[in-house]
Amino acid sequence: MKKIYHLSSCSTNQRILKEINPGKDVELQDIKQQNIDAETLDWIKDKVGSYEALFSRKAMKYKSMGLNNMDLKESDYRKYMLEEYTFLKRPFMINGDEVFIGNSKSVVEDAVKSFNS
Question: Most CB atoms within 10 A, among 37, 86, 90, 112?
Answer without folding.
Answer: 90
